[in-house]
Amino acid sequence: MDTRRKELGEFLCALRQRCAPEAFGFPAGSRRRTPGLRREEVAQLAGISPTWYTWIEQGRDVQVSHEVLERLAQALRLTGPERSYLFDMAGRSDPHGVERADENDSAPEALIELLAEFRMPAYILGRYWDVLAWNPLAAALFTGWLDQVTPGALPLPNLLRFVFLDPQARQLVVDWESRARRICAEFRADCRGRLEEPGLQRLIAELQQSSPESEFARYWKLHDVLERQGGERSFRHPRRGLVSYRQFTLSPVGQEHLKLVVLKPLLAQGE
After folding, report:
1. Letter string b/e over residues 143-156, b meaning 16 or more CB atoms within 10 A of that residue's CB
2. DSSP-derived 3-state class of residue 120
3. Fold that domain 109-268 belongs to in CATH
4. DSSP state, 102?
5. Transmembrane region positions (predicted)?
6. pTM for this structure?
7. Is 3.30.460.10 the CATH number for 3-89?
């Protein structure tokens, strides 16, 4: 089965099961064997055939039109990231979305030089969330990880491998479980147009197989989709104690797959 068709079907199924029937005008009732909306109810809301919708969710080889995708997005009340993911998995361009530029997974020298100017932790993520470059303050924050890597050496450090495979991350990141689930959802949204790339499939398979207690596999199966956003990030630093930052994520024009992440200090205890 085609990877995108399979992902599209599983994504719609996950969305459907999260919907409260009463919020969409259907009685909750006690006869429902599973949570959420039934397939025929989604089809009714979207104004399409129940059989056609079932085929889409089953991942069959059917061509889903822009109109049907638009109806499904409206019927299920999708967020912006969820809508973009829906269109990408169907192999369609979202008329309300943004076209992606050609991607080269290397950071411009000017952007790397800019890192040194920041008086706060900053780093650059590539298309698979490899850390392409970072400043000394980021290395000091992520002690035991970035401070142990020589810039430019291969393999590059990877944020997902650190969060899910490195035991130090569970000690460093405050509220690791909720942060890890969100990072998984952000990564799914970010790589939605690249799920068939062999490099990405190898990374996902590695994380699914190697993550302790299968956390990554469990979170990936949820099909959560979230854009990478700012907000407060707290860490238990082994020497500085509890430190908190406001995260900002920026992308250079023409290389939107790159992410410049800056952490502005909010709170530091024990310094």
Report:
1. bebbeeeeeeeeeb
2. coil
3. Beta-Lactamase (3.30.450)
4. P
5. none
6. 0.75
7. no
Q: Can you say whether the dihedral through the CA atoms of 123, 245, 247, 236 is positive or negative?
A: positive
Alpha helices in the chain (DSSP H): 3-18, 39-46, 50-57, 66-75, 80-89, 109-115, 136-141, 159-165, 167-172, 176-190, 198-210, 215-221
Kindly give the confidence (pLDDT) of every residue in the chain, 271 residues in length, as a single tens digit, with 9 standing for 90 and above. Answer: 588 899 999 999 999 999 999 899 988 776 777 789 999 999 999 999 999 999 999 999 889 999 999 999 999 999 888 998 999 999 888 776 544 433 446 788 888 899 989 999 999 999 999 999 999 999 999 999 999 988 777 789 999 999 999 999 999 999 999 999 999 999 999 988 888 888 899 999 999 999 988 999 999 999 999 987 778 999 999 999 999 999 999 988 777 789 999 999 995 444 4
> Which is nearest to 262 in space by CA: 230, 237, 227, 226?
230
Closest CA to 143 of 232, 242, 237: 237
Residue 144: name the closest of 266, 235, 232, 247 by CA. 235
How far, in Å, CA of 141 to CA of 247, rounded?
13
Measured between alpha carbons, how far is 137 from 181 in angstroms, rounded to an integer? 26
Q: Matching CATH topology for 3-89 and 109-268?
A: no
